[in-house]
Design a protein that fits this description.
233 residues; alpha/beta; Cobalt-precorrin-4 Transmethylase, domain 1; Methyltransferase, Cobalt-precorrin-4 Transmethylase, Domain 2; five-stranded parallel sheet; five-stranded mixed sheet; 27% helix; elongated; cobalamin biosynthesis
Length: 233
C-alpha cells in the first residue's frame, strides 16, 4: 500500500544497473532498491521483455511495487508515449513519496531517464545513482585499455558514419555504441585508418561475444559496441 505524502519533496532515484550482470550493480544502487517501495522499470515494447527486471528482482523486497513503462525501440519516442510514462511517474511519487527509476548501464549515458525527464512536470528531486556502463564493462572483459595520459576518447552511435570519419582525424580511441547498425562496416573503416579494433557484444550477459580484429559481417545487436585504439608506429 502507498502512504500519504508529507511536505517533503518526493525523491526519484535514477539508478544505473550496470551492463546486465546483477553482481555489477553498485552498493549504493542495491541499497536504494532495498529501501524504496516503488520501482519504475522501462522496457522495450518491441520485445515485451525487460532485462532490467531480472536484475531488480534480486534486490527489491516482496512488498515493493513494480511499474513497467513501455518505450518503443525507436530513435525518437512519440511525445504521447513520453507524457504517458511521465504521468505514471508523477502519480507514483505523489502516492509513495519516493521511488526508483532504473536503467541499464550508467544513469547518465544514453539514459532513458533523460528522454522522459522534460515531461515530468510534478515537483520532485532527482537523485542520480551512477552505474557501470557497457563501455567500461566491455573494455574490462576484452582487456582493452581505453586511454592513458592525455589521450582523447570519442563516443559515437553506430549509424553516425560522418561523425566516425571526423573522429579518425584526431581521436586516440573511438567507441561506437548501439550495434544494430552495420558494425562490420564500422570495423572495416576504422582498420583502414590504422586503428586496432575490438567488437564486443552483451558483455557480462548471456550470449557474450568478443572478437579482436574482426573482419567481415558482424552480428547486429543493440547491446554491442566497437572499441578502436589508434595504432602508433
Amino acid at each position: 500500500m502507498g502512504k500519504e505524502l508529507s511536505n517533503e519533496v518526493p525523491k526519484l532515484y535514477v539508478i544505473g544497473l550496470g551492463p546486465g550482470d546483477p553482481g555489477l550493480i553498485t552498493v549504493m544502487g542495491a541499497e536504494v532498491l532495498r529501501k524504496v517501495k516503488l520501482v519504475f522499470i522501462p522496457y522495450s515494447t518491441s520485445s515485451n521483455r525487460s532485462l532490467a527486471y531480472t536484475i531488480v528482482s534480486k534486490y527489491i523486497g516482496p512488498d515493493t511495487q513494480v511499474v513497467f513503462l513501455g518505450f518503443p525501440m525507436v530513435k525518437e519516442p512519440s511525445k504521447e508515449v513520453l507524457m504517458g510514462n511521465a504521468r505514471a511517474i508523477c502519480d507514483g511519487l505523489r502516492r509513495y513519496g519516493s521511488a526508483a527509476f532504473v536503467v541499464l548501464g550508467d544513469s547518465s549515458l544514453y539514459s532513458t531517464f533523460y528522454r522522459i525527464k522534460p515531461f515530468i512536470d510534478c515537483d520532485y528531486e532527482p537523485i542520480i545513482v551512477p552505474g557501470v556502463s557497457s563501455i567500461m564493462a566491455c573494455a574490462a572483459r576484452a582487456g582493452v585499455n581505453l586511454a592513458v595520459g592525455d589521450e582523447s576518447i570519442v563516443i559515437l552511435v553506430g549509424d553516425d558514419i560522418e561523425g566516425l570519419m571526423r573522429a579518425t582525424g584526431f581521436a586516440d580511441t573511438i567507441i561506437v555504441l548501439k550495434g544494430s547498425a552495420d558494425m562490420g562496416r564500422v570495423a572495416s573503416l576504422l582498420r583502414n585508418y590504422e586503428y586496432s579494433v575490438t567488437y564486443a557484444r552483451r558483455c557480462y550477459m548471456d550470449g557474450e561475444l568478443i572478437i579482436n580484429e574482426p573482419s567481415g559481417e558482424l552480428p547486429r545487436d543493440y547491446f554491442s559496441l566497437v572499441i578502436a585504439r589508434r595504432i602508433y608506429k
